[in-house]
Amino acid sequence: TYESLLNLLQKTLLALQADRLNVHLQSLLDECLQYLIDANIIRVKEVEQISDDSHAEKVKRLLYETTKLGKATVEGSVDLGLATSVYNHLATSLINMNLENPLHLLYITIPFDLPNMTIGFRQLVDRVRR
Description:
With 130 residues, the chain is an alpha+beta fold. It has helices at 2-9, 13-16, 18-21, 25-38, 68-75, 80-95, 103-109, 121-129; strands at residues 42-50, 58-66.
């Protein structure tokens, strides 16, 4: 629940330094939760619970739970900023997979951020000479 997340956040080092760093914990938590919801990492689930007081009224509470993409992001150690784009890329690529030869394995094992990598010409020549 939101209250349990805020309670957990208040027990961190950031909470101790919040005044000095000029950070408002509740607004920071709201921003982070909204970012995770927009990235489809978590979803909000509305649940009715019986209240703790003696009136036994049903109270609607919001629960936060991880999505399959959120679990895969954590377990696969994927950067949160890349998670959605990697998922979309794999979903569209799944249609074009050709399983008749092993070339799809090469496609799967190439790092997603390979276009951002630069390869030095000398290192390439040295590698070829070996």
